[in-house]
Write a structure and sequence with these properties.
single chain; 187 residues; alpha+beta; Ubiquitin-like (UB roll); 5-stranded mixed β-sheet; two-stranded antiparallel ribbon; 2 helices; 7 strands; elongated
């Protein structure tokens, strides 16, 4: 019965340590639509129940019934768009308690927002801007990268080594290198 929607509003919700909710003094309106309502149809009907205008913002939270039929627990899941609404209805209709239930609330907008104010007589303090450091750099040194160096290794005695690694991941080892031994007995 995806066309029957229970709309809860007013009152409060109490959450336990597991996130399950219990409704306190909430009103419930059971609404029967001709067919499964779209998210915009649900919002329009919820605004009617809350006596909101078209431009008033409301929140919608769906109610999931979890657990066994003897121990049903309610969990709240926010619904913010049509895609989430479709997933919720599909999930509920495949569950053990196929009833579509939502909690709607008007989003409160304070016409006089509270602002931080200083105690009487205190003025705002602003630090002066930090000056940029002066740098006397005439010539910046140029450091070549490793790829621009020639493919030869020059030691202290200026001898050229012919066996140079072609790639940075290639290492040259001799046949008797100790890193090739599994045990130290044969090296």
């Amino acid at each position: 019965m995806e066309n029957v929607v229970s709309i809860y509003h007013g009152g409060t919700m109490e959450r336990d340590e597991y996130g399950c909710v219990k409704f306190v003094a909430m009103q419930c309106e059971v609404v029967i639509f001709d067919e499964k309502p779209s998210f915009s149809e649900l919002l329009a009907r919820a605004r009617e129940e809350l006596h909101c205008h078209e431009d008033d913002e409301i929140t919608v939270e769906s109610i999931l019934h979890l657990g066994s039929p003897l121990n049903i627990q309610r969990k709240m899941v926010p619904i913010r768009c049509a895609g989430q609404w479709e997933k919720y209805v599909r999930t509920v209709m495949n569950g053990h308690s196929p009833s579509v239930e939502v909690v709607v609330r008007r989003v409160g907008v304070d016409p006089n927002p509270r602002r931080f104010s200083r105690p009487m007589g205190q003025r705002a303090h602003f630090d002066p801007p930090v000056p940029e450091p002066v740098m006397d750099v005439d010539v910046a040194p140029t450091i070549p990268d490793a790829e621009s160096a020639p493919n030869e290794v020059v030691g202290h005695g200026c001898r050229i080594v012919d066996d140079v690694a072609d790639s940075p991941n290639e290492f040259l080892f001799t046949q008797n290198d100790s890193s090739k031994c599994l045990t130290g007995f044969y090296c």
